[in-house]
Amino acid sequence: MAAGVLLAVVTGLGAFAPAPGSGFSLPALLPYGTPRFDVLAALPLLVFSSPPWPRSPARLC
């Protein structure tokens, strides 16, 4: 990381100055809108994260 910072400063791409504005701001609450649950997108996660069924009691050890 130090090498990257040094490279940015040498090439003029590193601007170490305060950002313009008030100097302090809080993060925006939900900047992309409210989250929604998509069942179709979650289905592969549910399938691949579930253990293989049925399991016999002998294989539980």
Give your account of this protein's structure:
With 61 residues, the chain is mostly helical. It has helices at 2-11, 39-49. The chain starts with a helix and ends in a 12-residue tail after the last helix.
| Content-based structural category | mainly alpha
Cα-to-Cα separation, first versus last residue: 46 Å
| Strand elements, count | 0
**Biggest sheet overview:** none
Number of helices: 2
Poorly predicted parts: none
Give the rounded overall mean pLDDT.
Answer: 80
The global form is elongated
SSE order: HH
Fraction of helical residues:
25-40%
In terms of DSSP E residues, the strand content is under 5%
Cα Rg = 25 Å
Concise description?
By secondary structure, the protein is mainly alpha-helical. It has helices at residues 2-11, 39-49.
Keywords, separated by commas or semicolons:
61 residues, mainly alpha, 2 helices
Question: What are the SSEs and their pairings?
Answer:
Blueprint: H1 2-11, H2 39-49
